[in-house]
Design a protein that fits this description.
Blueprint lengths: L2 H5 L4 E3 L2 E3 L3 E3 L8 H9 L4 E2 L4 E2 H5 L3 H7 L8 E5 L3 H13 L4 E6 L4 H4 L11 H14 L5 E6 L9 H11 L4 E4 L13 H10 L4 E4 L5 H11 L3 E4 L9 H9 L3
């Protein structure tokens, strides 16, 4: 057995952290709070991610940001940070690590106007040099904690630059990359293009996670096949069915 099928028989790892299975719960503001993450984890999700936390709010000690950052005894604790300045990202990462984060995830995929208007989230895909400075600053701040990255395919159809950002992010030290199969300007319209995510897989050697429109086990399988990704991340599909990541993860385990 060779190729992607063989690689999926090996444990999914983020640096030296072994992920329970290949179906992850996406970070969703206002949804994936600690109780929801505990429930999804108890139902078998391979990994759960905190709600997106603004790095500057975390550094300034805003209560909601601190709450989102706190470890909740769910296993590997993944804190997702967003920001557009190296100072806030590095300081936020240090605080998250001190609060118990096992993984720091950088958000470069959120399409919300209040995020991109502040030049965070997927707006960073318009300036890859600046995006890399943020990645490098975050990694340098938490040398003992792996850093991962979540992005979209690009800003719009004319700037499909996810493969380039992924390649540069891996060279900087990012340990896993998640790609939502839409551009920022698509928001959540149309269908996620899982096949387009395959170009990112071809550009990197670290694990790739495909995200977007995965609302059933059957779609999880199709997304993996079309993208050649190592794992899937379920977001909106888990709303109202928090068991979906766990059930899909169990079903995807090799016989």
């Amino acid at each position: 057995m060779t190729g992607p099928e063989c690689s999926r028989h090996k444990p999914l790892k983020i640096s030296d952290i072994t992920v329970a299975n290949r179906v992850l719960l996406a970070p969703m503001s206002g949804v994936t709070d600690a109780p929801f993450r505990r429930l999804a984890a108890a139902l078998g999700a391979g990994l759960v991610v905190s709600e997106m936390t603004a790095s500057d709010d975390l550094v300034r000690g805003k209560p909601m940001s601190q709450l989102r950052c706190e470890a909740s005894g769910i296993g590997p604790h993944v804190v997702q940070l967003a920001g557009c300045e190296t100072h806030w990202m590095s300081e936020g990462a240090r605080i998250a690590e001190a609060a118990g984060a096992d993984v720091i995830d950088i958000n470069m995929g959120c399409p919300a106007r209040h995020v991109t208007g502040g030049q965070s989230g997927s707006a960073l895909m318009r300036d890859l040099d600046h995006a890399l400075r943020l990645i490098e600053a975050t990694i340098a701040a938490v040398m003992k904690v792996p850093v991962t990255l979540k992005m979209r395919l690009g800003w719009d159809d004319r700037s499909f630059n996810a493969p380039e950002l992924a390649r540069r992010a891996e060279a900087a030290g990012v340990q896993m990359i998640t790609v939502h199969g839409r551009t920022r300007c698509q928001f959540y319209k149309g269908d996620a293009d899982w096949r387009a995510v395959r170009a990112v897989k071809d550009a990197i050697s670290v694990p790739l996670v495909v995200n977007g429109d995965i609302t059933s086990f059957e779609k999880a399988v199709t997304a993996l096949e079309m993208s050649n990704a190592d794992a899937v991340m379920i977001g909106r599909g888990a709303q109202g069915q928090p068991w979906l990541p766990g059930q899909s993860g169990v079903a995807l385990r090799p016989a």
